[in-house]
Design goal:
The structure holds two protein chains of two kinds.
Chain A: E1 4-7, E2 10-13, E3 19-25, E4 31-37, E5 43-51, E6 54-57, E7 64-66, E8 76-78, E9 87-94, E10 103-104, E11 108-112
Parallel strand pairs in A: 2-11
Antiparallel strand pairs in A: 1-3, 3-8, 4-5, 4-9, 5-6, 7-8, 9-10, 9-11
Chain B: E1 3-6, E2 11-14, E3 19-21, E4 23-26, E5 32-38, E6 44-50, E7 56-59, E8 62-65, E9 75-77, E10 86-93, E11 102-104, E12 108-113
Classes of the chains: A mainly beta, B mainly beta.
């Protein structure tokens, strides 16, 4: 098992550009989430999905879109990048609900100029 | 709403010292509690967890006990090593939530001196 994979590892964007952060898992997990990690603020939930075709907003969804067309993939789209979106982005997945271990990808470091 | 509060870092200790990282939580219902660790340049990985009151999670010499009366889940280790240097996150999962979102604390950076 590759676990949770994320691409790219690092990206530089100019303000206003769009891009998609890729996330995939091969563990047949129902739950997938996107977090951003900023200094001193821990991890904040952007969007999450409880299964294929179902997504919902987390704490900080503005400026981001997601879709879940398959169980394996959960891409995160930045529609029009802003400097405030400079952060490290983590994708995570878990099998089910409460008490289940969440598995994290290695992260994507994004710099918006 | 649900929240997790953990002690601010950085925490700097000498090798073989005793470690405590405090974590308290606010939640409705009966959450599951977790400690995650993030080594430099990596994603988070589960260190230990407890799913009900008075449970003790343990792994790699680390321990934490789910204390409902004090709403706490403090992380402890009797003798730290240089390899324990990392950022530690306390987290909860609220089983009463239909989506069972996981809420993270802000993280505590731990540095161990040889």
């Amino acid at each position: 098992n590759a676990g949770v994979t994320q691409t790219p590892k690092f990206q530089v964007l100019k303000t206003g550009q769009s891009m998609t952060l890729q996330c995939a898992q091969d563990m047949n997990h129902e739950y997938m989430s996107w977090y951003r990690q900023d200094p001193g603020m821990g991890l904040r939930l952007i969007h999450y999905s409880v299964g294929a075709g179902i997504t919902d907003q987390g704490e900080v969804p503005n400026g981001y879109n997601v879709s879940r067309s398959t169980t394996e993939d959960f891409p995160l789209r930045l529609l029009s990048a802003a400097p405030s979106q400079t952060s490290v982005y983590f994708c995570a997945s878990r099998l089910g609900r409460t008490g289940e271990t969440q598995y994290f990808g290695p992260g994507t470091r994004l710099l918006v100029l | 709403g649900n929240s997790v509060t953990q002690m601010e870092g950085p925490v700097t200790l000498s090798e073989e010292a005793f470690l405590t990282i405090n974590c308290t939580y606010t939640a409705t219902g009966y959450p599951s509690l977790f400690w995650y660790v993030q080594y430099p340049g990596e994603g988070l990985q589960l260190l230990l967890k407890a799913t009900k009151a008075d449970d003790k999670g343990s792994n790699k010499g680390f321990e934490a006990t789910y204390r409902k009366e004090t709403t706490s889940f403090h992380l402890e280790k009797g003798s730290v090593q240089v390899s324990d240097s990392a950022v530690y996150f306390c987290a909860l999962s609220d089983r009463d939530s239909s989506a069972s979102k996981i809420i993270f604390g802000s993280g505590t950076r731990l540095s161990i001196r040889p």
